[in-house]
TrEMBL record, chain A:
It is a multi-pass membrane protein. InterPro entries: ABC_BtuC-like, ABC_transptr_permease_BtuC. It is found in: Cell membrane. Keywords: Cell membrane, Membrane, Transmembrane, Transmembrane helix, Transport. The keyword Protein transport does not apply. It comes from Kribbella aluminosa. This is Iron complex transport system permease protein. Belongs to the binding-protein-dependent transport system permease family. FecCD subfamily. Pfam families: FecCD (PF01032). The chain crosses the membrane at residues 50-68, 80-99, 105-123, 132-154, 174-195, 222-248, 260-279, 286-306.
UniProtKB/TrEMBL annotation, chain B:
This is Iron complex transport system permease protein. InterPro entries: ABC_BtuC-like, ABC_transptr_permease_BtuC. The chain crosses the membrane at residues 52-72, 84-105, 111-133, 140-164, 184-203, 215-238, 270-292, 298-316. Gene3D superfamilies: ABC transporter involved in vitamin B12 uptake, BtuC. It is found in: Cell membrane. It is a multi-pass membrane protein. It comes from Kribbella aluminosa. Keywords: Cell membrane, Membrane, Transmembrane, Transmembrane helix, Transport. It holds the Pfam family FecCD. Belongs to the binding-protein-dependent transport system permease family. FecCD subfamily. Its main location: membrane.
């Protein structure tokens, strides 16, 4: 259902922009019968953007689902444990000091570095969900203040492009980005299907999982690595798009009894594609970064979740 | 008593240092002459028009942040509460951005009301969200994070749509004392004074709240009234501090913790200690920021985050998770 909606919204997104096309024109172009202009608009410009949005939405959402179930806490998401902040610092460092090349690679390194720091700092006879979140808040503050400092050193146009990246943006995404996130999912989705069984075992509690023959510590390590990898690569591709990882798994749980990891992914993809369409069209011709819209749609939902009388 | 006298002495030393240290060292004797017998020489002007207002601003902002953190931790019975974490600063920040961007207001007297309004709305929202179904520290922290993200998204949109707002905002958001002048300081004094009096008066009631709502009520404490007054104190103090110096994180969190370690759980001692200790830390961070990156300056908000966040992490590691 979510996938069908994603395809529909995605197709609609291909028609909208500075140069509005009909759906028939888009289809003709995709089958190789368009003009040079429509080919450029659809195939070089809008299609990679939409596909990148679908990919990063799915990756963020799957990562969020893994962390929430691992911590047995509906509010844990990769943004809270330093992945975004680390990527942001690395990317802003590259944009302000070096120029714009190598952003995805640098962001990937930054997010992995800060995620590992948070994990190690939170580790004390194992890692509890709450401690992971609170240590993440602390590390995020340190890294975030360095990022803010870098922004004050840059000239205003550099600061603006860095700010765009910081908000999470799909602007100017090319087929390179599609390939990056596509490979991520090509590895990530089968891996998620395989480790989902481990996740269900861990949800029974460490003692029961061990009694049933699960290797608890290694299973947890693999799951954290997969969650960090998905979120880090998605951040490297599109910047730190907020709240998708947090919201999509919760929506999935309310729509499907046992959602696994792929259903949240489909919902995340839909959320990002819808948000990006809104980001491009609501205040056109200005294009907002997609992250501004996802936070705007997602934060009220988090607040609603928090008011549910459920111990967390 | 001895320790309190020691703290006051340390604060006095830091204040003198703050007047002496900078781009150029100006000796205490020369500082004294500049303040008592102003001749208009370069160093006299530096002391009187730059370092004096900056130092007084540091005292005001530090006292305000330390006290508001202590009051917030007392009233929520939550050792991890802090105006920065609970979204108060984000509320003030987004309101200031609105003041700059939408209304073209650039003076403290104009946007101090915006900062306080924003702080008020964010505080109430975070507290309400945290209160439904029972307040837990993690829930309050996450409600603060969500409200901050929502407000941050508005701020983000506003600054990206208007380049000149972004330009002012990016320097303001790191938190700095360097823009303070006599006018700003004079305008802020009554607000901070009001907040300080209100906060210090609440000490006894906060002690009773620490016993739990039911017991406090049985002892004759008007719990709701205390909460409202405490909220007012937090909003006035944190809102004014943010208006003067921008959002400065972690001071309001770490300082009351240290105060509690030194003087024990009595709020009547934690509150004044926080009020005196926070300006010590803030002014020290400001002095470090002035000399560490010469000839440029490192903004005080960055220095306090770099010092405060590791403290926070150490605190989180020390506490048993159950206590969170």
């Amino acid at each position: 259902m979510a996938s069908v909606l994603t395809v529909v919204v995605g197709a609609y997104a291909l028609t909208r922009g500075d140069y509005t096309l009909s759906i028939a024109e888009v289809l003709r172009t995709l089958s190789g019968q368009g003009t040079l202009i429509t080919y450029d608009v659809v195939v070089n410009n809008r299609l990679p953007r939409v596909l990148t949005g679908i990919g990063v939405g799915a990756a963020f959402a799957m990562s969020g689902a893994i962390f929430q179930r691992l911590a047995r806490n509906p509010l844990v998401s990769p943004d809270l444990i330093g992945i975004n902040a680390g990527a942001a610092l690395a990317a802003v460092l590259i944009i302000t000091v070096i120029g714009s090349g190598w952003i995805p690679l640098g962001a990937l390194a930054g997010s992995l570095l800060s995620a590992v720091s948070v994990y190690l700092l939170a580790y004390r006879n194992g890692v509890s969900g709450n401690r992971l979140v609170l240590v993440g808040v602390g590390v995020t503050a340190i890294v975030g203040s360095l990022t803010a400092y870098l922004l004050t050193l840059a000239d205003i146009y550099t600061a603006k492009s860095a700010s765009m990246w910081l908000a999470g943006s799909l602007a100017g995404r090319s087929w390179t980005h599609v390939v990056l996130i596509g490979v991520t999912l090509a590895v990530g989705i089968p891996a998620a299907v395989v480790v989902e069984r481990q996740l269900r075992l861990l949800e029974l509690g460490d003692d029961l999982a061990r009694a049933l023959g699960g290797r608890v510590e290694s299973a947890r390590g693999v799951l954290i690595a997969l969650g960090v990898g998905l979120a880090a690569l998605a951040t490297a591709t599109a910047g730190p798009i907020g709240f998708v990882a947090l919201v999509a798994p919760q929506l999935a749980r309310r729509l499907v009894p046992r959602p696994g990891l792929v259903v949240p992914g489909a919902i995340g993809a839909l959320l990002v594609v819808v948000s990006d369409l809104l980001a491009r069209t609501v205040v056109a011709p200005t294009v907002l970064p997609v992250g501004v819209v996802t936070a705007f749609l997602g934060a009220p939902y988090l607040l609603y979740l928090l008011t549910r009388a459920r111990p967390i | 008593m001895k320790r309190a006298a020691g703290l006051v002495a340390v604060l006095a030393v830091v204040v003198v240092l703050s007047l002496c240290v900078g781009d150029r060292w100006i000796g205490p004797g020369e500082v004294y002459r500049a303040l008592t017998d102003f001749t208009g020489s370069d160093s006299d002007r530096v002391v009187r028009y730059l370092r004096l207002p900056r130092t007084v601003a540091g005292l005001l902002v530090g006292a305000a942040l330390g006290l508001s953190g202590a009051v917030m931790q007392g009233v929520t019975r939550n050792p991890l509460a802090d105006p920065g974490i609970l979204g108060v600063s984000a509320g003030a920040a987004v309101a200031v951005v609105a003041a700059i961007g939408l209304f073209g207001i650039h003076s403290l007297s104009g946007y101090v009301w915006f900062a306080m309004g924003g702080a008020l709305v964010a505080t109430v929202a975070v507290y309400l969200v945290g209160a439904v179904g029972g307040t837990t520290p993690v829930k309050l922290a996450l409600a603060g994070a969500a409200i901050s993200a929502l407000l941050g998204s508005v701020t983000s949109a506003a600054t990206l749509l208007d380049l000149s707002t972004l330009n002012e905002y990016r320097f303001w958001v790191v938190g700095s004392l360097s823009l303070a002048d006599h006018g700003i300081v004079a305008q802020a004094v009554p607000f901070v004074a009001f907040g300080i009096v209100l906060a210090l008066v609440l000490g006894r009631s906060l002690n009773q709240l620490a016993l739990g709502d039911d017991l406090a009520q049985a002892l004759g404490t008007r719990v709701l009234l205390i909460r409202v007054l405490a909220g007012l104190a937090v909003v006035v103090l944190a809102g004014t501090a943010t208006a003067i110096a921008g959002p400065i994180g972690f001071l309001g969190l770490a300082v009351p913790q240290v105060a509690r370690l030194v003087v024990g759980p009595d709020q009547r001692r934690i509150l004044p200690w926080s009020m005196l200790l926070a300006p010590v830390v803030l002014l020290l961070a400001d002095i470090v920021g002035r000399v560490v990156a010469r000839p440029a300056e490192l903004q005080v908000g960055i220095v306090t985050a770099l010092i405060g966040a590791p403290l926070f992490i150490a605190l989180v590691r020390r506490r048993r998770t159950a206590a969170l």
